[in-house]
Amino acid sequence: MQKLKGIKILLVDDEPNILEFLEMGLQDEGFEVRTVQDGMAAVTLAKQFQPHLVILDVMMPGMDGFEVCRMLKKTEDVAIIMLTAKDEVDDRVKGLTLGADDYMMKPFSFEELLARIHARIRNQFPNLVGEVVIGAFRIDDRRKEILYGQRVLELSTTEYELLKFMVLNQGLVLSKSKILDKVWGYDFGGDENIVEVYIRSLREKLNDKEHRLIRTLRGAGYRVDL
Question: Is the pTM of this model over 0.85?
Answer without folding.
Answer: no
